[in-house]
């Protein structure tokens, strides 16, 4: 039981560590995404101010904005996939922990069954 409790406590600590790392990564990713979006917005504003006279430049700005929007969408998709991967990893750790606990319980029950069988044989 102590071993199981120790293993459970260790797994809980590992879970907390993973969650803290995931939280830090998510915050960093969102911060980077915000800064990147701000920089892109600044670039578009400067380009727009410099090129408002020429029609070709206006088309170029529209194309650039469209490209940045597509990049932003892809960034969000990447972040969503990264978050899903993190969730799957945490679920995997939780499942492994549960499997370990169930294996220990099975071993305990098998041992108990053997003890009871020995008792029955003894009585017979």
What report would you give on this structure?
The chain is an all-alpha fold and 124 residues long. It has one domain. Helices cover 96% and strands 0% of the residues. It has two helices and no strands. It has helices at residues 2-51, 55-123. The chain is rod-shaped. The model has no long low-confidence stretch (mean pLDDT 90).
Which keywords apply here?
124 residues, mainly alpha, rod-shaped
Quick take:
This protein is an all-alpha fold.
Mean pLDDT across residues: 90
Overall number of strands: 0
Structural class: mainly alpha
Using only CA atoms, what is the Rg? 29 Å
Shape: rod-shaped
Poorly predicted ranges (pLDDT <50, ≥5 residues)? none
In angstroms, what separates the terminal alpha carbons?
A: 32 Å
**Number of domain modules:** 1
Instruction: Specify the biggest β-sheet.
Output: none
Classify the beta-strand content into a percent band.
under 5%
Order of helices and strands: HH
In DSSP terms (H or I, runs of 4 or more residues), the helix count works out at 2
Helix content range: over 70%
Please specify the SSE layout and strand pairing.
Layout: H1 2-51, H2 55-123
